[in-house]
Amino acid sequence: MRAHEIDYQIYGEEMQYVEIELDSQEIVVAESGSFMMMENGIQMQTIFGDGSVAQQGIFDKLLSAGKRVLTGESLFMTAYINQEHEKRKVYFASPYPGKIVAIDLTTYEGKFICQKDSFLCAAKGVSIGIEFSKKLGRGLFGGEGFIMQKLEGDGMAFVHSGGTLARKELASGEILKVDTGCIVGFTKDVDYDIEFIGGIRNSIFGGEGLFYATLRGPGIVYIQSLPFSRLADRIIASAPKSGGNSREEGSLLGGLGRMIDGDNRF
Q: Is 84 helix (H, G, I), strand (E, B) or coil?
């Protein structure tokens, strides 16, 4: 099945949203919670899996939905169908500050691999599955970057990143070492593995974790400057504890320390 040919426009800087323009009977599928608004005439339908195959039996539908459970996503997705004869628009927003990346799968030979929680929406016909690891190191120590999603087909897909987005084009054999949580996605020819940082001081006192990802070209890699997990950890660490105190109010240098380091937000 050939994916629907949707038109789009991305708006905004730090908190972006994407406008999808649908012809009559065209469909876009999206993750639950990404919907922003839509014009009259578009109908929403909850579906099992991604709806990439037109005719599926109940077993195939359960298998497709089950793959999404392995990546921590819902069993269901939402399809948005233009029931009018004229063009209609539907809008989807990224869930936290960052950038939306438009992925034309035809330019990436029909496959793109991304973080398990970065997928936003796609034209109907794009298959959203999981990328199985064939390497022991990646499977045992991958952490945030271990369970990856794969987007396959010949249509448009959209993924989101946190903070500022970096696009790196790796030559054949070129290696890029990245924090596992900072990976947004990469093309299918990029070789991905997990490596131990090494060194006792690095392991115990480094504060950056014990492992990082190595990405070997050729191919294109997208890197985010602020993974949501890192942002959430900072928010949790700074949240008031029981009794209403923030992380530093119990120390003699709490308020003074915040003034010195410029952190006066808490």
A: coil
> CB–CB of 212/140 below 8 Å?
no
Cα angle value 185/139/205 (rounded, 5°)? 85
- pLDDT (tens digit, 9 = 90+) per residue, 92-126? 998 888 999 999 999 999 999 998 788 999 999 89
Cα separation values, 110 from 3, 106, 127, 155, Å: 11, 5, 10, 8
CB 107 within 8 A of CB 100: no
Q: How far apart are CA 223 and CA 202, in angstroms?
A: 23
Q: Phi-psi bin for 210: left (phi > 0), alpha (psi -120 to 50), beta?
A: alpha
Per-residue pLDDT tens digits for 20-69: 999 999 999 998 889 999 999 999 998 876 666 654 555 555 555 555 55
Query: What is the distance between the alpha carbons of residues 263 and 260, in angstroms, rounded to a whole number?
Result: 8
The phi and psi torsions of 133 (rounded to 5 degrees) equal -85, 135
- Count of positions (residues) in the chain: 266
Residues whose CB falls within 8 Å of the CB of residue 173, separated by 6 or more in sequence, listed in order:
216, 217, 218
